[in-house]
């Protein structure tokens, strides 16, 4: 097993989790910036003097490759991985959307559109069966994972008409040395960004919920989808990890708190990493864990349904989910090497 | 001029601003906890050895009294202030709502319901003329100020049908030693609270916007109001000062970005403390100032209007607004002692 | 195995670590405040509905008891634990100092002075052999662990004459809801406290270093100690976890950087949780791990030796060290259930 | 009056303070990056649409020029300012040290060594008389201001033998977009940097204290200095503004707390911006103000003197001090436009 892009935050979390995975050997990791240097030179938290090696060597040595690279790179690497009879888990957006939609929202010409049909969408709560034995997984990101899991029960039930989704994210979501993330201008500050329907995770949220609306609970990656219009407004919050989704959903039919509780508890009853909480979720409760905390709330004054979802954007929203997909793909127990409980405080 | 409740955050900001006010003398300030002790013992930022004095002495000495006390106390003090021919600016919720509504949402029996008719609602952007010469001002709080100013142009135009309002607040809004505001459990954390239509600032937001809908731009404090249903979901953000309102408004008629820009710029063209910004507001830009930064955004995908409003909850959302009201009430220039520009970083 | 005081931060970390310990069963945990309530009601990060049980039940069920209680309580409980043939790991200060010294610095009369001779001082790097099979362990705290490990090589070498030690700590060191740890007054703030030689960890640091000076590297818990005078000045830093010790040591003999490197690397060569780093330690690099990062630096201008030590105060400075001691005491591999690598960012 | 380098943090603070200065006109400000753009495009806190203009225009229009530029630039600009009969306040290091010392520590060849004799060192508490009417002021930075004021009374008394100085700084000291100051790697982190006697503010601290030792309280900028050896270890603290100096001084003679109190209170009795506090200083107490809070503490166990000094690094440690010097230079009241009290919380 190998990791490309091991000097980014997603890569670091993959290393942290995979190093504790029994029965898996980390055969190599790459980073253009740190090539030849020891792991500890890139990451103060790791006590490991093995060097970053060239990407080609990782590809040669590994049977499964995690690609934690910027958008647009995996599409050039995955074809050779699959051709060599190996498997790939892509943490970027390259294989999450139909190539035409991808090109429209990401502004990047797609180099391997033929592989989209092969890619399984890596949200285990919705696509567990398809993931078993998959060769290529398109691992979703933090906002989409949280928003999809928040609204999935309503969509699968066929009652979701639309939603106003507010995303609140810590700065690690912008990556290492992310633009506009200097401490002096982030701490004690709070701001919306990419508001007004311009964030490129919108079509992915709509695709996920639209499939559930069209196909119900057993929706498949490449199946039919109904149209669903979401408003999505992300904000940058002065914290490092954690995202919270606050969604106001317009729903059909008559609902009350008890019916919502039952819907959500039943929907997620067998899920190892989704908890429907009594109170209201808080991001810190998921720190370092692969857990999502969810809460639906019926708002009598407006007849709308509020749903809150909290997760650690680098774990369930990124590397942890990739490991969960890896476990399913390779036949390991799904929970292997994935903490359900986090650090506090 | 005197301050009751000078050992809370609102009191501290009042002292900071009023000490720099030319032509006003701070004749006394009280706090049960610090009575007899010097100001510097309560506040490390103040270099002032004058002692806190008993409340009665402040009331005796001052011609205008600022009441920065917990809800339910001002209603017992204001009658004697007015009887003595003096004036009062109340920073609590006691005189903001009709007594019956107040009792229903605050759970406190009202001791001076007859004074509600006398109280002018202290939002200068909407009630400037009434504030001139007022004897009793009901100074609104941070969430209500921000949400009202965010949606007022749409309401005064008569097109506001409803809104999903998300409130994001730093912890100083909970007061000094506020419950659940320990650093170890707030830093790197984010959580909703009082969700589902239970926050007591909701009726006040609805009252303000309902009056504008019914009466238009020249709405008066005690005039008629139309019903408007808001959803309001507050969140605690790991920062000390600053609030951001993110609202999604449902509006009548056909709008686009340019029409919105014109509406908002015209509405606030003469306001000394409201700025309609080009980009998106951020809370830190208002730190320590009495300014509100606003931005309306037309969202084509949904046909809704997003509005963002940022302000410093202890200044424009509390003490600064009280000083602005004081200036109007006493005939000072409205901008006296009130910075429009803040600290950065 | 059971935990007393499971609703404090030390208790929470013990639960996190022990739940992942293979071959150990957590048979009960207590907290006066949460008795009868599920674990998840006290801790948002834990997904565990088992209830807190009365202290007596924990003592009855457990073969090894971790006491994460305020100072002064363990001394009343440990006698019965030992009498019942069980073992105890005390995370408080009760058994770290000779009873007379304890009473002088803690202002608490000692109820079980006779047990001091039995207690092994729980710093594995200095007392590994004594800890194997110990019945009672006095687990040291964060400042003392860091300061002792920072200066131990110089003391064991016999060259340490004295040191100016500056301690910098996140607020979790003050415990849950610790006095003066409200977010609004901690964030963007930094302050010294208990300065001028009044902090009660001073005699413990002097005892540890004095024993090394007198007995050398193989110092034993109750052996002879030489006098060494330290200045210790703690500070509260606006962060949750992590402490850094910055010490300026006055040393005998001629030193240079290379000699220091050799001394420190040799001293800690076999230690599983102590890393001598190339650059300068930073606290975040140890987050959630049981690792200490150390760096000695020879300062030519003054002829002094600077030493920096960083650790996670709740892990190596508290619960992780307790688990390390437990492993030694019970014959488990010392590293069991203890991460050497932390979370980043 | 004009400002060069108005898009850095020092520049922003200068604008904030000078815009509120009565009787001074801000005739222009420059920034290469923002030239031609409005002030509000660089600074969200400022409501000012005047454009940044070319540096030459500022120099032409202004009678007094504040230079808030990186080290090495002022030395090329100041000669023409002075030649034109104008005055300069330089916030960089260019004129603080004898040119040879400067070159050795800064690694920059000095272009105007002849002007060093002309420059008055801009610490009003030590050089007030020289500053009146000065043509060129070398404005000291945050660490040096705090460390010098902390130890000045001991040096002027002739008893200071040496000191171990620990500096703790918020990240704004590293400037806008300072290296290594990304939120995700600064928050919840704490680290030393440039340790071991390599920080270039060391010779400046030694020069200031050495002059006081040699000349006593009335020391002059270019007078004789005695050698004094300091150890200085700076740390980066996860906060934006504020620095704290914690110094352990070795002193001659017999001291106790009362004698120290008297020494410090007398030394600073007439100073408008220096407060000797009862308790221990905290950085947040100075936020946004030009005040320094100081505390000497006699440590009986070691016979050493601890001194703590807290200030806002961008005000008294930078722009506020520059305005204080400007006031002295131009004959304004020294306190004009300079708050002594800050924001809290």
TrEMBL record, chains A, B, C, D:
Pfam families: Semialdhyde_dh (PF01118), Semialdhyde_dhC_1 (PF22698)
Gene3D superfamilies, sorted: Dihydrodipicolinate Reductase, domain 2, NAD(P)-binding Rossmann-like Domain
Keyword annotations from UniProtKB, A to Z: Amino-acid biosynthesis, Arginine biosynthesis, Cytoplasm, NADP, Oxidoreductase
Keyword Repeat belongs to the record: no
GO molecular function terms listed in the Swiss-Prot or TrEMBL record: N-acetyl-gamma-glutamyl-phosphate reductase activity
Entry EC no(s): 1.2.1.38
Catalyzed reactions: N-acetyl-L-glutamate 5-semialdehyde + phosphate + NADP(+) = N-acetyl-L-glutamyl 5-phosphate + NADPH + H(+)
Domain Semialdehyde dehydrogenase NAD-binding: start-end pairs: 2-134
Functional pathway: Amino-acid biosynthesis; L-arginine biosynthesis; N(2)-acetyl-L-ornithine from L-glutamate: step 3/4
Catalytic center residues: 142
Family, similarity comment: Belongs to the NAGSA dehydrogenase family. Type 1 subfamily.
Task performed by this protein: Catalyzes the NADPH-dependent reduction of N-acetyl-5-glutamyl phosphate to yield N-acetyl-L-glutamate 5-semialdehyde.
Name of the featured protein: N-acetyl-gamma-glutamyl-phosphate reductase
Gene this chain is encoded by: argC
């Amino acid at each position: 097993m190998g990791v490309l892009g091991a000097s980014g935050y997603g890569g670091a979390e993959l290393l942290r989790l995979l190093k504790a995975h029994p029965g898996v050997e980390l055969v190599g990791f790459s980073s253009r910036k740190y090539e030849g240097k020891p792991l500890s030179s890139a990451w103060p938290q790791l006590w490991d003097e093995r060097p970053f090696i060239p990407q080609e060597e990782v590809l040669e040595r590994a049977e499964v490759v995690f690609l934690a690279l910027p958008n647009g790179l995996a599409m050039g690497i995955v074809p050779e991985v699959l051709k060599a009879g190996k498997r790939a888990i892509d943490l970027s957006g390259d294989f999450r959307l139909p190539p035409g939609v991808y090109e429209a929202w990401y502004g990047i010409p797609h180099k391997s559109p033929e592989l989209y049909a092969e890619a399984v969408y890596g949200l285990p709560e919705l696509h567990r069966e398809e993931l078993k034995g998959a060769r290529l997984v398109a691992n979703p990101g933090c906002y989409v994972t949280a928003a999809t899991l928040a609204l999935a029960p309503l969509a699968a039930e066929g009652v979701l008409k639309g939603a106003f989704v507010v995303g609140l994210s810590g700065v690690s979501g912008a990556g290492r040395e992310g633009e506009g993330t200097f401490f002096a201008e982030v701490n004690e500050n709070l701001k919306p960004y990419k508001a007004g329907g311009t964030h490129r995770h919108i079509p992915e949220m709509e695709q996920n919920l639209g499939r559930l609306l069209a196909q119900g609970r057993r929706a498949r990656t490449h199946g039919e989808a109904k149209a669903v219009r979401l408003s999505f407004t992300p904000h940058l919050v002065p914290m490092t990890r954690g995202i919270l989704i606050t969604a106001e959903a317009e729903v059909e039919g008559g609902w009350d708190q008890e019916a919502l509780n039952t819907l959500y508890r039943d929907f997620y009853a067998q899920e190892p990493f989704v908890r429907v909480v009594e109170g209201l979720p808080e991001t810190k409760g998921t720190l370092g864990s692969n857990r999502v905390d969810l809460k639906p709330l019926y708002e009598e004054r407006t007849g709308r349904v509020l749903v809150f979802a909290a997760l650690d954007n680098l774990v369930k929203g990124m590397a942890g989910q990739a490991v969960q997909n890896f476990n399913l793909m390779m036949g390991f127990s799904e929970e292997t090497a994935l903490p359900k409980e986090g650090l506090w405080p």
